[in-house]
Amino acid sequence: MDGGIRTGTDAFKCLALGATMVFVGRPVLWGLACAGAKGVRDVMALLRDELELTMRLSGCPSLKDISAGLVIHESNLVPKL
Fold this sequence. Notes:
single chain, mainly alpha, 2 helices, 0% strand, elongated
């Protein structure tokens, strides 16, 4: 998946829906612009921490445990009239 990844939960959803890799571009550039190499490290650490928290909250001890059944689309929640 390439594009639109801004948070660790975005990465989780992509992995759950079948992505084998998730590329992060814009957040890295934001970090680079704000604080250079340290900013990039900080952004990547934040994304990793968000992904790990999402995995823990979803009951996924490893990446291989992430599955499509963990993603609920809003169309499944809205009652149809």
